[in-house]
Amino acid sequence: MRYLPQIDGLRGVAVLGVLLFHLGLPQASGGYVGVDVFFVISGFLITRLIRTEVQAGTFTFKKFYIRRARRLFPALFFTLAASLVAACLLLSPGHLENFARTLVAAILSVSNILFWQESGYFDLTATVKPLLHTWSLGIEEQFYLLWPWLLMLLLRRFPQAVLPAIATGAVVSFGLNLAFAGKTHATIFYLLPFRAFEFAIGALMVWIEQRKPKSAAVLETLAVAGVALILWPMLAYTPETAFPTYNALAPCVGTALLIISGDARYTGLLLRNRIAVGIGLVSYSLYLIHWPLIVFYRYLTLAPLDVPEQIGLAVASFAAAVAMYRFIERPFRRPGVMLRSQVRFVSSAAGLSVAVVIASSLVAWSGGWPWRIPSERFLPSGAEFQKQEDARCGGRENSGELVTCLVDRGSERDIYVLGDSHARTLVTGLAKSFPQYNIKVMFYTGCFPHRGLDGYTYDLGSEELNAGCAKRNRDAQRFFETVAPTNVIISFWTIEADFSPNYIAALRELVNDIFSHGHNVKFVGDSIRPGIYAADCFAVPETIPNSLQQKRCIGDQRLSQRLEAQNDRLAAILGPSIYINNNGLFCMPVCINNIDGKPLFRDTNHLTPFGSEYLVARIAPLLQIY
Question: How does residue 182 score in pLDDT terms, banded at 50, 70 and 90?
């Protein structure tokens, strides 16, 4: 088959977009569309290869899959092995346990399915998932597994139906994408059926490329349009852009146009020049290695990257990619150089896969090898802290009742807490500071207690959660309108406060309505935190020295400053008689996540039982409990 240098140039553009996006450059806020460029290229190349060999009578599934394995597995195995070593040296037990699961999923080409299953309210942030980028490899490998069989069937049995079938598949996949867009973002992002239209666009180019226009002016026009349709999303899209949905069409169509117009004399040089082609040649290794390097470095610092660090990581990624291409990718692609026997190659790959799966399973089963952590650094996991909170609540979270967390002391005096999971964390501190009171928490995950009042609303991510939140808030409001005067504490996650007129009006309506029925109402402001897991900076191996360990625990002070500004603004809205501002309690002056090694937060934002006791003990007089 004729070599198309513009394909490697396209790969170079795609991987640069992804790299710059992952490094956090604001100018490449939509660089993630580079993955979609890769999908279109894969659809084109695989379909072109199979069609050509079928027509020549040389295609076999054995040869196809051996070739794919030689192309993909050596560099992937090296990346996974290197990441496993780094993970064992750096990660906390909880994160190593999660890493081990993702490593098994990556080996089995199902990491996209694992990340889809893990997505949700309590999902770990991307910055502690060194193999998160393997989701796209999972989709590609699933495509390689299914598409050759279907294409062979069409080419041999229904040759006239090939194009209509591909076009129909593209339309159906894109239609599913749009149909599910408003229901769950993770589903259309991570799963192959909702991404298949991108591969199908590339597959269609196999036939269209052979009938491309001969006019130089037309080719230049198509090339310019293709470049614009790829670069514009890379520059203009953001992580908040609805995606894939219809927004994926721009980079996909742009890639398709450049596939057929890459021969354009002038614009095509953007892709055919030696630099673009050179980056494209190492693009697979660069894609594999760059994200683990970024994640492990950020795990060391637990701080946003500055410009010198971004440059350093980019250089390191390129250096590693070039070395991987030279010493791993190229030798394994040539059967005569390494592992000449196909049987030896397959058995070696299978044996290595089994060994990695077994080792990773043992790591996950053991809870992330906690023996790596010195006793003076060991901390319970966030899940263990949450179990302590669950035990305090009396197992009522899934009861369906209004009070979902109860410390019942048989007293005639009560303290009610209304809010989301942040409100529930107050239960331990309230129970300790007020031992003569029943503590009754009206808790609903992610639910602001003023949602649905005075026209204020927001989406919790599903209709079930939206309906449950609205019902809880209506029931709570009616309850406080009928019960005898008591103590009511309101608290919730305020980092997402939008301070719109509806937001403020609804919050005032909630507070004033409860206050008007004779209740002692206090709003406990959000706790100021540096936004890092305590386990990230404390429960780590001695590979991370004490000097760096203490520096890491400072976290992102910009988040703390943003939270303080939010609290000050809410204090001005509700007034000091209602609002209890926590700004001075966690910042000394640097905002902290621990005191003498005791963590204040179990994750990036929820108080531990110790943190709850620390907070409530200091605000108890301001609560004016009667």
Answer: confident
